[in-house]
Design goal:
By secondary structure, this protein is α+β, with helices and mostly antiparallel strands. 30% of the residues lie in helices and 17% in strands. The protein binds ligand EPS. The site of ligand EPS has 14 residues, from loops.
Length: 404
């Protein structure tokens, strides 16, 4: 909050993987947005799916409870707080108890993790936070935290839909198998990406690739190994001019990259052609401007100068294989300092399909922040008036007689 007291959009989460539950808090959503728990739960259910998930998803049945910010089916303009209980907590009450005297033996804590997994936060977090039990780190580093992100993202999606902005995703690559459908492929994306992608057990739009991906997940599982992949996430209907060229931290592409890179296990984010643009000549990269200010192509992926162009926003998000291996890698025991095999916790073979749903949520959060920052408004009605006035201004600039 600056000295002027201007409205701030804020988003945060709290919660451990086997703790009591997860909380998501969103601040700055205007009053009057119609919303129900069902709007949020449908997204939580999508996140729980995907071939290659482990036994934990059979235990959980994620649903939100409103704690604050919503009344009679509408947002109030106050901070929105949502809670998702961890069903698994029942089995972890003593291990995760907040009170010292509820833990049977504080020195010999149960289910300690002292053999850190290469690739996980275990070792670095234990050193940084001076913990001898890596469980104190991994409980929060766990991707379970993304439940709360998806809950907040669902509210943002609902707001964006009021402005005809739709976000979808599909798995473009998994375990080294590439789908032949995508924004840069000859086989174009369907108009409603999620309607099609959610029909596939791996959220892949290419049936041949889907069958091969499933074979590779089965093989990786049998070998005690894990698989990564790439998701393509697309936002349709984003108006021209979200984000800004004026300062490094106002650029929409940079903000998307940060938000998406913050998803556990994500190692790369590309916009449009991404790294491929670096290999091509300028004439094969830039999108020519057509009458009516439309573009012949969308290789930029929907941003120029850190601002949305009005074309579809296309990001690709790369996830490394999950670092919990059932056939563990070499490590060092935190207690003895001697060589050991990394600890195996129950986990997923792959979570790439779920990561697409999380990427949609993060994209929705970033776009909501950018929309509110440009147009403001305490009520949805005010925000709509502001957006409409701006769109009329842009339309008035469109060359006369041109196709819109
Ligand atoms: C995770 C390990 C697994 C995953 C978990 C992320 O949990 P558990 O150790 O309880 O089996 O299932 O993901 C979720 C619980 C979830 O909701 O996505 C990890 O270590 O990151």
């Amino acid at each position: 909050m600056g000295v002027g007291g201007e409205m701030t959009f804020r988003f945060t989460t709290a919660g451990e993987s086997h703790g009591r539950g997860l909380v998501g808090i969103l601040e700055g959503i205007p009053a009057g947005l119609p919303i129900s728990a069902a709007d949020v739960d449908v997204e939580l259910k999508r996140r729980m799916g995907g071939y290659g998930r482990g036994a934990r998803m059979k235990i959980e049945s994620d649903r939100i409870e409103w704690l604050a910010g919503v009344r009679a089916g509408e947002t109030l303009g106050s901070p929105i707080a949502m809670l998702v209980w961890n069903r698994d907590w029942e089995h972890w009450q003593d291990v995760m108890a907040p009170e010292a005297d509820a833990t049977p033996d504080p020195l010999g804590r149960r289910r300690q993790v002292t053999r850190p997994r290469p690739g996980h936060a275990d070792l670095t977090g234990s050193l940084k936070y001076d913990r001898t039990d890596a469980r104190d780190i991994l409980e929060r580093a766990s991707a379970r935290e993304t439940v709360a992100r998806v809950a907040c993202g669902a509210v943002c999606k609902k707001l964006l839909r009021e402005f005809s902005i739709e976000i979808g995703s599909h798995v473009a690559e998994l375990g080294g198998v590439t789908a032949n459908v995508g924004a840069q492929h000859a086989a174009a994306l369907p108009a409603h990406i999620n309607d099609a992608a959610d029909q596939s057990p791996v959220r892949c739009l290419d049936k041949d690739a889907e069958a091969e991906i499933i074979r590779r997940i089965d093989a990786a599982k049998a070998a005690g190994d894990t698989l990564g992949g790439i998701v393509e996430c697309v936002a349709l209907g984003v108006p021209v001019g979200l984000g800004s060229h004026v300062s490094w931290d106002t650029k929409l592409d940079g903000r998307l990259a940060q938000a998406l890179m913050s998803i556990p296990a994500v190692k790369g984010v590309e916009l449009g052609l991404g790294f491929e643009a670096a290999r091509r000549k300028g004439s094969e990269v830039h999108d020519e401007i057509m009458p009516g200010f439309s573009r012949a192509t969308n290789r930029a992926g929907g941003t120029e100068g850190g601002m949305s162009t009005g074309e579809p926003l296309v990001v690709r998000v790369a996830m490394k294989p999950i670092s919990t291996l059932m056939s563990p890698l070499k490590t060092v025991d935190l207690k003895t300092g001697g060589p050991a095999q990394a600890q195996s916790e129950r986990s997923d073979v792959t979570a790439v399909p779920a990561m697409g749903v999380i990427a949609e949520a993060m994209m929705a959060i970033v776009l909501t922040e950018a929309l509110l920052e440009k147009f403001g408004g305490d009520a949805l009605s005010e925000l709509k008036r502001n957006v409409d006035a701006y769109l009329a201004q842009v339309r008035a600039r469109t060359p006369k007689g041109a196709a819109s």
